[in-house]
Amino acid sequence: MMLVRSQALIERSRLLGPAFVAAVAYVDPGNVATNTAAGATYGYLLLWVLVGATLMAGLVQYLSAKVGWLTGESLPALVGIRNRRSTRLAYWVQAELVAVATDIAEIVGGAVALQLLFGLPTVVGAVITTTVSTALLLVQDRRGQRDFERVITGLLAIVTVGFLSGLVISPPDPVQAAAGLVPRLSGADSALLAVGMLGATVMPHAVYLHSALVRDRHGRADQHCAAPTLRGIRLDVTLAMIVAGAVNIGMLLLAASTLYGMEVSGLEAAHAAVRGQLGGLIATMFALGLLASGLASTSVGGYAGAVIMEGLLHRRIPLIWRRVLTAIPALILLAIGLDATRLLILSQVILSFGIPFALVPLVRIARDRDLMRLVPTRTATIISAWVVVGIVVTLNGVLIGLTLAEA
Q1: Residue 13 included in any domain
Q2: Which of 5, 94, 161, 259 is most exposed by smallest CB count within 10 Å?
Q3: Which helix (H) or strand (E) holds 406?
């Protein structure tokens, strides 16, 4: 019996990888800025938001992976199949805006990290970030998906160590951290920050991409392997979201234990506060984590853009050109001198507009018993998914309204 279980575990472990690539979207530079600001301003108060956000994201990513596995198609391709040409084109335009906004946040994060580490101007750092992330994409194009997964997972490991190393020196208060798991707020400002943390958790490009990653890794399901493979996919999603959730929660805990009461607005301010409280080594680890986050997430975003174009327009262009097209707006905005923190906020608002276009089709397809006939999605899962969609879409609407009101 033990031998059978060990063999089953080994088989499932071979399915790991796609979810870790998608999970990079949940530890991008935008998350760094938001989580450190939450901990510095409100201590452990909003810890429950990150726990809830991670659980919701896990459900969404599992449904995306399941759809890709059982249908043998990416989510954008399924959307394209179900709509006429004019609708597909309109859908593609909004998806491209999402891809551009994704690149803005992540190139900015990489540029800021290089400035913190080496004193480079942000424009130079943005060009370096774009170049290196393009090289990472070429790994996927020329060496295959498994090598790309290994590279991105390695960068995710650097992100994890970089952002969590400070907890070794300044561990959180366990009693106060436990109290932070109880849902509560402290005024309108904390509500706004909670909306930003929870409502902007699910990234549209990660939802689009995960379905393609699973399709490309495993092919299309058949009757004999559907259920066992789905168990491996669930394990992949669970482990990946545990890592992403731990990084996000760790950032808040670190800020709550060391930066509470300080003014932390933006990545540079967070780095300066960490340096002042924990010293140069931990600040350098923080900057390295930010750099790995920017490089990994912008590479994944570029991959997602290619999946979106292929699925909706049935066209493929060389990855290097695909990468350049979405990076140009970020490079231009930094070149004209726009503030990096403002660009991060702008990108999150644009991403919020794209949330319904990713989540609503995903749940509608996941509940389609004809498409999911090998392993139909349970009614309780679909109900939970619609609840998540309602929460995320509503909060993103609130976030957009409040952000525009303050602009």
Answers
A1: no
A2: 5
A3: helix 379-406
Decide if 107 is inside a domain. yes
- The pLDDT value given to residue 199: 61
Say which amino acid occupies 190: S
C-alpha distances in angstroms, 199 versus 75, 145, 192, 331, 396? Answer: 21, 30, 10, 27, 5
CB-side neighbour CA atoms (13 Å) of 268: 13
CATH of the domain at 155: 1.20.1740.10
Give the Cα separation of 114 and 120 in Å (integer).
6
Burial of 139 (0-12, 13-18, 19+ CB in 10 A): middle
Least Cα distance to 303 among 212, 204, 202, 203 occurs for: 212
- At residue 7, the pLDDT reads 45
Q: What tokens appear for 253 in the block? A: 């805990």
- What tokens appear for 137 in the block? 């994409």
**Cα-Cα-Cα-Cα dihedral sign, residues 86, 90, 92, 93:** positive
Low-confidence ranges of the chain (pLDDT < 50): 1-10
As a dihedral over the C-alpha atoms of residue 308, residue 292, residue 355, residue 334, rounded to 10 degrees, the angle is -90
User: What's the predicted TM-score (pTM) here?
Assistant: 0.91
Range of the domain at 75: 19-406
Both tokens of 128, joined, read 């370096």
Question: Which residue from 307, 93, 352 is spatially nearest to 211, judged by alpha carbons?
Answer: 307
CA distance 98 to 203: 9
Q: At which residue do the structure tokens 């899962």 appear?
A: 381
- Judged by DSSP in three states, 72 sits in coil
DSSP string, 319-369: HHHHHHHHHHHHHHHHHTT--HHHHHHHHHHHHHHHHHHHHHHHHHHHT-T
